[in-house]
Amino acid sequence: MTVSTSKPQPLAALSVDSDLRLRDILKTLPQEVFKKNPRKAWLKVAINVLLVGLGYWGLAVSPWFLLPLIWVFIGTALTGFFVLGHDCGHRSFANRKWVNDLVGHVMFLPLMYPFHSWRILHNYHHKHTNKLEVDNAWDPLTPEEFASLPGVVQWSYKQARGRFWWVGSIGHWALRHFNWSQFQGKERQQVKLSVIVVLIGAAIAFPTLIATTGIWGFVKFWLLPWLVYHFWMSTFTIVHHTAPDIPFIPADSWHQAKAQLNGTVHCDYPRWVEFLCHDINVHVPHHLSTAIPWYNLRKAHQSLKENWGEDIIERQFSWSLMKEITDQCHLYDADNYYRTFKD
C-alpha cells in the first residue's frame, strides 16, 4: 500500500503501466460488487430518514447547549441524503431510471440542490478526473490564470484553497447548478425541471418555517445543518483528489486508468461519519466504476488493495491532513504538481 506523503513522486514512477486500461482493472473486481441490492438500498433510505427526523426532534426539545452537537449530527446525516442521491445520479440505486430520478430529487430537496444539474456536471467530473483545465471539481488554476483574475476573485479562490475550504462547495452549488443555459437539448430541460423543483420547495418551505418558528427557527432548523452538510461536501471532495503528491495532468498526457486509480484518495474518517455518509470516503472503487453501489464499495476496495495495493493512496482524516492540503495545494505546477500562493 502506498501512503501519500508531502513529497511528490514522478508520475512515471507509479507502478501502473502506461498500456493499462480501465477495463483491465475492473476485470479484477468480484462481479458481485456491481450487483444492486434493493433491500439494502431502501433500508438505508429508511434509516437515514429516521435519523434525520430524530435529529430534528432533538433540535426541538433539547436545551441550547446541546444544539451544536445536534447541528453536527443532522448536517452529517443530511450528507447521507446527498450520498443516496449521488447513487441515484449514477443509476446505481435502482434499475429503473425514473426511480433514480425521483429518489434523487427527494434526497436533494432538503439541501436545495438541483438534482439533474449536479448529476450531469458530476458525471463530467468522473469522465475527466484530474484532467487539468477540464475537470470541474477542485481543478487548480495555473499561476497565469490566477494572475489574470480580478482581485475579488483571487481573494475568493485563496479562501477556498486555504483555511476556508469548507465553504468551497457553497460557491460550487450557487455558481454552477442553477444556470440551465449552460446545458443543451434534453439536458437543459432536465436541469430546468430540477431547478424549478428546488425553487418551488424553497418558496414553500422557507416562508412556512419562518412563519411558524421565526428567523431563528430558519437558522436553527435549516441554515446551520445545511452549513454542516457543506462542510462535509467541501471536505470530502477536496480530500478525494487533492494532495501534494496527486497530480492534475494536462489533457494531452492524461491517462484514464492512472487518473482513476492514482488520482483518487481513500480517506478514513471516524466511523460515525462513515456510517452516516454511507462510505462515500471509500472513493477509489467508485471512480473506477460508478456502477458500484455504496454498500459494495468496501468489498471492492479490499479487492483493489489485494490486486493493486501499491497504487492505492490512503489517508487518515485529521487537522494535519487538511493543513497539508490547504498550505500547499494552491496553484498548478508542472514540475511539482502544486505550488503555494507564496512561491
How would you explain this protein's 3D organization?
With 343 residues, this protein is mainly alpha-helical. It has one domain (2-339). The chain is built from 14 helices and 5 strands. It has helices at 22-26, 38-61, 67-89, 97-108, 115-127, 143-147, 151-161, 168-176, 185-241, 256-262, 271-276, 284-288, 297-308, 319-328; strands at 2-3, 265-268, 313-316, 331-333, 337-339. The strands form 2 sheets. The protein has a 3-stranded parallel beta sheet with strand order 1-3-2. Helix 3 packs antiparallel against helix 4 (97-108). The chain is globular and about 60 Å long. Mean pLDDT is 94; it is low at 1-14.
Which strands sit side by side, in order, in the main sheet? 1-3-2
Number of strands: 5
Helix proportion: 55-70%
How many helical stretches?
14
Shape: globular
Topology:
Layout: E1 2-3, H1 22-26, H2 38-61, H3 67-89, H4 97-108, H5 115-127, H6 143-147, H7 151-161, H8 168-176, H9 185-241, H10 256-262, E2 265-268, H11 271-276, H12 284-288, H13 297-308, E3 313-316, H14 319-328, E4 331-333, E5 337-339
Helix pairs in contact: 2-3, 3-4, 3-9, 5-9
Features:
343 residues, mainly alpha, two-stranded antiparallel ribbon, 14 helices
Q: Brief overview, please?
A:
With 343 residues, this protein is mainly alpha-helical. The chain has helices spanning 22-26, 38-61, 67-89, 97-108, 115-127, 143-147, 151-161, 168-176, 185-241, 256-262, 271-276, 284-288, 297-308, 319-328; strands spanning 2-3, 265-268, 313-316, 331-333, 337-339.
